[in-house]
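User: Some background: our group keeps a shared notebook of sequences we're curious about, and every so often someone picks one and asks for a predicted structure to add to the entry. Today it's my turn. The entry only has the sequence so far, pasted here. Could you supply the structure so I can complete it?
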Amino acid sequence: MSDDLKPWLRVGVVTPHPLNDTLPYEFYRMAPTGVMLMTAGLEISDYTREAVEEQLPVLDRRADALIKRGAHRIVLSGVPLAMALGRPRTLQLLADLQERWKVPADTDLEAIVAGVKKLGLKRVGAATRWKGPMNDRLVSYLAEAGIEVVGIANSGRTMQENASLDDATGIALAMDLSAQLFQKPEVEGVIMPGGRWITIGAVRDLEKQFGRPVLTNHTASLWAALRDANHKTSVSGWGRLLDSLGH
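Assistant: Of course. Here's the predicted structure to add to the notebook entry:
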């Protein structure tokens, strides 16, 4: 195989759903040459702890398949999964995966936590497509990680409604909700958790407009994968976090 075609980093992602579109679309817009995305899906029926726990045996089988195919990293995608389990349970699950497969293990939400800390943020705004109880779980999870949510802008939707969200609406929501939060001077940066909307344009445009960081599932997760792979070249154009790799 030609060296320029051989992947040097394979990121194995276990997603909450069998169908993935925004993840690969955004990943390959941002990822450096030679980074491969590998996905395997669960079938989460709802944003509840019971629904997530029911799929954990499937998670183990999906991780096994990804490792056998050559994954250098396992990521449990989907912020609602981590929120449903709670931070202690999530961290234990990651530790167990790491011990079993001998590769780094992560979640999108823990990547966001690490990214917020990398940028030195303490007080963030959260732009979400979830209803009140989900947002409350997010606030509690982040508080356990030492991050204060000082504002929430949301467009409350169910899992089924999020699954049917069209691209134009998702792009507009990402811009509009985050822009609302940046009107608050106490918001040091904005996080946009959740993977089923196109958000990277908001990262690019809002950081330029407001001069404060924006983090999403896919920017934070890619940053964490590259950081752990000792990649020291900036990924420019998609936000301050990915750009920080070169500094």
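Suggested note for the entry: The two ends are 32 Å apart (CA to CA). The mean pLDDT is 94.
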